[in-house]
Amino acid sequence: MKIDNLPKRVIINFTKKCALNCEWCYVHFDSQSISRDKLIAVIERVSYLGFDSITFGGGDPFQYKYLSTVITKTKELGLFVHIDTHAITLSESYENAVLLENSVDLIGLPLDGSTRHIHDLMRSSVGHYKIIKNKLEWIKSHDISIKLNTIVSSVNKEDLKNLSKLILNLQPVRWSIYQFWPVGPATKSASKHILEDKEFLEGIRKIDFRAFENITTIEVNTAESRRSTYPILNHNGEVYIHHEYPTDGFQYVGSIFDKGILAKIGTLCNQEREQATSRYIENKNVRKAYSK
Ligand code: SF4
């Protein structure tokens, strides 16, 4: 089954728990247990419905021992595999190295400040900056495309220029910059982090985009550009989307196993935003080039 004009990507969030507690996290943690077989069934269903990319995120995917089996299965189904991780539970093991090199197309890590102080403040976690720097070193020693993710809020907006210099040194294939978006649970921290579009774009203009040419693709995501662009699943296959403007919450769509779920998703979601689409094309090409 394949229907055009539908989003081609889903996000699967592990909503049981997370080791971090970021103030602007949009994930609804629900303590629901996770079974490997159920998760594989969700992925098979996603593939059957015609989606071609999965972003695994939310409470960190690497906290689950069977992640390797799940990711390998996802790759066997021919899907583009993107994992976002806070890196705390990403152990530098031989198994993870093999997994990343063979079955993961893109790995995303957070970097929200040019200094330990700013990054740790944004992530509400002392020592997290050091973990990210160390894990980046390890990941870079393997054949895997890296995406760095930055949330920009009123707390770190003045740091964007310095952060861009650090990112340029690190040379990820992609740098995704997200304007703070008070959606879902993140609405609680709106008064602290809110950043108007104008201020966000003023910060973006301080980045020397030309310096990144042929090194890193920069993806600038305003808050509203993310609304209704992809379905968000939890690990049990419950499907949500961002509510229509101006509601800052999530709408439950149904289970991925429901008959007619694709049509529902089609009426509620638009296609992937243009600036994100190339993640799944460019990086596929990078991997092809590596494997020749
Ligand atoms: S690491 Fe990700 S999932 Fe965990 S709290 Fe932070 S934003 Fe949410």
Structure explained in plain terms:
With 292 residues, the protein is an alpha/beta fold. The protein has helices at residues 36-48, 67-76, 94-103, 116-123, 128-140, 160-170, 190-193, 197-204, 261-268, 274-277, 279-291; strands at residues 9-14, 53-58, 80-84, 106-110, 146-152, 174-179, 217-221, 232-234, 238-242, 250-255. It has a single domain (9-291), classed as TIM Barrel (Alpha-Beta Barrel). The protein is globular. Residues 285-292 have low confidence and may be disordered.
Rg, please? 18 Å
Q: How many independent structural domains?
A: 1
- Amount of helix: 25-40%
Class per helix and strand makeup: alpha/beta
Keywords:
11 helices, ten-stranded mixed beta sheet, alpha/beta, TIM Barrel, about 290 residues, single chain, binds iron/sulfur cluster
Short summary of the structure?
The protein is an alpha/beta fold. It has helices at 36-48, 67-76, 94-103, 116-123, 128-140, 160-170, 190-193, 197-204, 261-268, 274-277, 279-291; strands at 9-14, 53-58, 80-84, 106-110, 146-152, 174-179, 217-221, 232-234, 238-242, 250-255.
Walk me through the topology:
Blueprint: E1 9-14, H1 36-48, E2 53-58, H2 67-76, E3 80-84, H3 94-103, E4 106-110, H4 116-123, H5 128-140, E5 146-152, H6 160-170, E6 174-179, H7 190-193, H8 197-204, E7 217-221, E8 232-234, E9 238-242, E10 250-255, H9 261-268, H10 274-277, H11 279-291
Parallel strand pairs: 1-2, 1-8, 2-3, 3-4, 4-5, 5-6, 6-7
Antiparallel strand pairs: 8-9, 9-10
This protein binds iron/sulfur cluster.
Iron/sulfur cluster binds at residues 18, 20-22, 25, 27, 58-59, 86.
